[in-house]
Amino acid sequence: MAGLIVLRPGVDWSVSGALFDWTLEFLISRLSDRQAAGRIQEIVDNNLGSLWLNDMPEAVQREIVGHVRSGLVAAGEKDLPDTDQKADVLRHLQELVDATHVAALPEPGEPT
Questions:
Q1: Is the whole-model pTM more than 0.90?
Q2: In b/e form, how buried is each residue of 7-34, taking b as 16+ CB within 10 angstroms?
Q3: What is the per-residue pLDDT across 35-55, written as a single tens digit (0 to 9) for each?
């Protein structure tokens, strides 16, 4: 099963289900809005397979973007198992980081 994070209409990130779940778990543990973290946990727990960023409050969207940009790839380097596929997996994570820029999503503290 694959997973999909829709950043904006026409800008999304599609990846294997395992990496999708890992990415959402990365976000869940870092979000300050526990209600939003609970909603994302439901996506993982129920294998829903997609997260639409615009379904989240604007402050949560900004926080998600901040965490993705500032720590996702580094967390993958540190926490994901060292396998022959790790470089490819890290490239997929970097694609999500890059997609946040393509979608012109602001981080916390940036003007909209």
A1: yes
A2: beeebbbebeeebbbbbbebbbebbeee
A3: 999 999 999 999 999 999 999
